[in-house]
Request: fold
Amino acid sequence: MPEPPLAIPAADALPVQREATLGFRLARLLLGPLYMLLFRLRVTGRENIPPGRHYVLISNHLNWLDPFTLLLTFPPEPRLHFLADPENLVKNRWHWWIVRKVGGYIPVDLKRHRDTLLYEQVRKGLAKGVVVAIFPEAAYGPREGELLNFKKGFAHFAIEGQVPVLPVALTGTKDLWLRKQIELRIGPPIESGGMQVDELVELARDRVAQLLPAYTERPGWKPLRRLLTRLLY
Reply:
C-alpha cells in the first residue's frame, strides 16, 4: 500500500540553535570520510569565515552535493541552518526523520515563501547566533560558472539582523563522478550595515561571480557519473 503523502512542515517544525546537536556531530563524523572517499575537495578562503560570529551565508547551487559540501567545510558551531523547500528535500518519512535528528534546516513552502513564520524563525535564529545558509538562485544553476538572478530574501535577513553576508562559490558539483575535483571558494564577508536591499543583492551576486573559477571538464573515464549525479534526485 503506498505511503500517504507527507504534509509540508511549517517553518517552526524544527528548533533553531547555535549549538551543534549530537546527531549533527555524528553525521559529520560518518559523512566526512565518505565524502573524501568519493570526491576530492579543495577549499580556499577559510580565513574569511568570521570566527565565532554569525552571518548569512550565500552560495551558488548546482546539485544535491552542495549543502553537504558546506556542512562539512564550515565549523559545526555556530550551526548552519539551510532554508529549503520540503517538497524538494523531504521525499518521505525516512528523510524527515533524518532531518529532525540532524536539524539545521528551516522548511520553506515556496508557495507561501512570504509567510511571516519563516521570517520569524530566521530572525530568531540570527538573534541566537546561528548561521543562515541560503542558495539565493532558489534553483539549480543551468551550467557550471553561470549564475541565475538572486532572490532578495538573504539581503533582507542580513540587513534586519545587522549581520554580514558571506559569499561562497562552488565548482564541480553539476555533474559528479568518482574522485571528481570539487572546489569551494570563500570570499571576504560583506558588511550589511548602511546598505539598501537592492544594493546588497547586486554586490553579493558580483562577489559570488568573481569567486567562480573558469571550469573545463576534463576528458577521460568518469566512473559512476550517472549514479552520483542523480543520487538524491
Observations:
- The chain has a mean pLDDT of 88.
